[in-house]
Design brief:
Blueprint (H helix, E strand, L loop, with lengths): L3 E2 L17 H11 L1 E5 L1 H9 L4 E6 L4 H10 L10 E3 L2 H8 L8 E5 L6 H4 L5 E5 L5 H13 L4 E4 L9 H7 L8 E3 L7 H6 L3 E5 L6 E2 H6 L5 E5 L8 H6 L2 E4 L11 H11 L3
Parallel strand pairs: 1-4, 3-4, 6-7, 6-11, 7-8, 9-11, 9-12, 10-12
Antiparallel strand pairs: 2-5, 3-5
Helix pairs in contact: 6-7, 6-11
């Protein structure tokens, strides 16, 4: 298949790439259509390295040389049957809704969910995210999880999609590196973790909370760290379902951290 030159933003072949800045639309459309968007040459390479398959590519012509080897490897453009759409910057901006300055976009096939027991086989430390709706925070948590050796991330049904474009970009592609899945039902699904031998530790400010230092000094063999929403923190149901409640020691009159920062502190303190 040769490169496809696009000049019409309404070309039906570009449906995967339209209105990318409409968060509500895209968070409904992409999982239902079995796709996600990878943005930038670096992220696309990491997605392919993780075994994910591209549906198509969209880029300005000047970025073709940077991705020539990858396009050839995945059977894209003239080397295969994966379409490569090429257009002028103003046309690409009309299609996507933003200036495409990070090299390229790729519409990727969304991987099939992995059963929980297989996902957690051999895992010793988990992050569990309850209803975190900010994609930037989700991406930052994944980046910390990858950097600090967390084995897997589980997200509640209402949590933001880790494979949304912004989450992927903020994580620098580490969402492809750290195994993840959705935990349902919620918070009843935490019982499944307990059945698999995990101690469930909720990060929250309650009267029964113990210091993170105490947990770090006597780490359970398997530990699941549960982190809550940006505003209200963990729900009462999630706290009640936990084996213990953990707080990060604070100074200077500060009572809590942003969830992304709190996750990094907790992951570092409980590393092995």
């Amino acid at each position: 298949m040769p490169l496809i030159r696009v000049t019409d933003p309404d070309d039906v072949r570009l449906a995967d790439y339209t209105r990318l800045t409409d968060v509500v639309l895209r968070t409904r459309l992409e999982p239902a259509a079995g796709l996600y968007m990878a943005e930038s040459s670096t992220v696309i390479r990491r997605a392919v390295a993780a075994g994910h398959r591209p549906r198509s590519f969209l880029m300005a012509e000047r970025f073709l040389p940077d991705l020539a080897d990858l396009l050839d490897a995945v059977g894209a453009g003239e080397s295969g049957d994966v379409p490569v759409f090429v257009g002028e910057p103003e046309v690409l901006e009309s299609i996507t809704g933003f200036h495409l300055h990070r090299g390229a976009l790729a519409a990727m096939h969304r991987p099939a969910p992995v059963p929980l027991e297989r996902l957690l086989s051999g895992a010793g430390r988990l992050a569990v995210l309850e209803d975190i709706v900010d994609h930037t925070n989700v991406g930052a948590v994944f980046r910390s999880a990858a950097a600090l050796g967390v084995d897997a991330v589980l997200v509640s049904p209402r949590c933001a999609d880790p494979l949304y474009r912004r989450s992927i970009r903020v994580s620098m592609g580490t969402v492809f590196q750290v195994p993840w899945g959705r935990l349902e039902p919620w918070p009843g699904g935490l019982d499944q973790l307990r059945a698999l031998g995990f101690t469930v530790a909720a990060l929250a400010l309650t009267d029964r909370a113990v210091s993170l230092d105490d947990v770090a000094s006597a780490l359970p063999d398997k530990l699941a760290l549960v982190l809550g929403t940006e505003g209200d923190g963990l729900s009462r149901g999630a706290v009640a379902a936990a084996d213990l409640v953990v707080r990060i020691p604070m100074a200077g009159g500060v009572d809590s951290l942003n969830v992304a920062a709190a996750s990094a502190v907790a992951f570092w303190a409980t590393r092995r």
